[in-house]
Amino acid sequence: MRIPSGHGFQDYSAGEAQAATPAPLSILWAMAAAGAILYGSLIPFQFDWSVLLSGHGLLLNQLSWVSTTTEDVITNIVVYLPLGLALIWCGLARRANPIVRIAIATCVGTLLSVVAETLQVGLSARVTSLTDVVLNIFGTTLGAMFAVIFSATVLTSPQRLRDALASRPFATTAWVLTIGLMIYGLAPLNFVTNTAELHESFRQARWSLVTPRSIDLADPPFRALAHEISGAAWFGLLAFVMSLGHRERQRSALSATISAIMHGMTVAILIELLQLFSRVHTFDIASLVLRSSMAVFGAWCAIVAWKLTTLTDLDQRVRDRIRFGALAVLATFEVVVILLFTLRPTLLSLNLGALEPVAWIPFESLWHRPFSIAVAEALQTVATFGALSLTLGIALRYVGFNSPWALAGSVVVVFAGVVELIGCFTLSHSGDATGPVLAVVAVILTKAAYESLFPQALPALAGRPSTPRSR
């Protein structure tokens, strides 16, 4: 087959055409998006069955126009965006006209929204709204339009990322981590819009290194410290990976270290300075200093690790022990930071009668919070447990486990349950099933990302075969 190009006609075989067409995602992604929407729409599941069984709850005339807030508008649009994306990327009416595909996705989103809103008639804690239906329809359509326009780019991105990871794994990982830190550090991108808000943001900024960071007596005594350490650790990891990325390019140890330090400090400074113009975040000079210091430490550790693992007089067994030891230390550090967020030594109680009941419905606690805060907290939890599962999964490969992810996932989920169990024995705090469920999500996503993006890069870097050896 010959197709026109900028320089005349070029041969274009059927195999090349098939390779250029990205493969659709599994339909499970669309089903998961629809299930998540229904779950979030029907929390707390306290139905008045007399209303639903009477038939009034399933009538469209029960819906009416209701005034809403800006955050509700954004929420109703954003939660249906993944549905539109997933429906298109899963190959819905793949051979049809793009407008037809968008229309079909919109119909599916409309049906789901109507079902969710009418079922909310039986929930006293919910308000049925035709306004929400319209916003949900708009969100689904917007997601479907985005998917149609950018399908080729997005669906082929994993392969491009795999190629980049195979050729320059450390540098690619460092830039992905940089983008992630920038997004997380500035989310939800709610910047000031007038001079009064700007002055207020500057007034609330912490310009001292010794300003108390936690004044709430109900908070764990180490919560502020744990927050700062966990935030700084990501910048240490960024500098660590970036330094190794420079070494991939055959740069000297000194040049790689300086460049990695400058990169980590630049990202830290840029995030903190932009937080001066944010309504949500607060500029903190102590965070800037700690993160910059951690970047220096991370870059130094990278050079030491590189030298230790490239010594010619070390056999493979010693190299494995060094790598496993480093991963074990990292996993221990992650566990300690998670515990520092939770442990309240002065508030521990063994009086079972004084304990608050456990919130067994996952995500119900997040539902009572503003959307931006709930999303940020959920993402932070997933990132924390994901990092721990990734560390354990790679470490277990070194000791020869055939199913490292199964064991790593089990350990992470059990640990998440232990964290919530500690909370049950703490006054003014109750256990929540949200943490373990998010841990399960983190393990699944981490395993999927590792198997999709790192099957060649990480095993090769580790000096191990792509499949772990049998014991």
Tell me about this structure.
The protein has 471 residues and is an all-alpha fold. The chain folds into three domains: 25-158, no CATH class; 168-310, no CATH class; 313-471, no CATH class. The chain has helices at residues 14-20, 27-42, 49-53, 70-78, 81-89, 98-119, 130-167, 169-186, 195-204, 223-248, 253-275, 285-309, 316-342, 364-367, 371-398, 404-424, 434-453, 457-462; strands at residues 2-5, 8-11. A two-stranded antiparallel sheet has the order 1-2. A hairpin with a 2-residue loop joins strand 1 (2-5) and strand 2 (8-11). The longest helix has 38 residues, at 130-167. The termini are far apart.
* Proportion of residues in extended strands: under 5%
Question: What share of the residues lie within helices?
Answer: 55-70%
- H/E topology pattern: EEHHHHHHHHHHHHHHHHHH
Number of domains: 3
For the structure shown, list the relevant keywords:
471 residues, mainly alpha, 3 domains, two-stranded antiparallel ribbon, 18 helices, disordered N terminus
Secondary structure elements and their pairing?
Blueprint: E1 2-5, E2 8-11, H1 14-20, H2 27-42, H3 49-53, H4 70-78, H5 81-89, H6 98-119, H7 130-167, H8 169-186, H9 195-204, H10 223-248, H11 253-275, H12 285-309, H13 316-342, H14 364-367, H15 371-398, H16 404-424, H17 434-453, H18 457-462
Short description:
The protein is mostly helical and 471 residues long. Helices cover 67% and strands 2% of the residues. It is built from 18 helices and 2 strands.
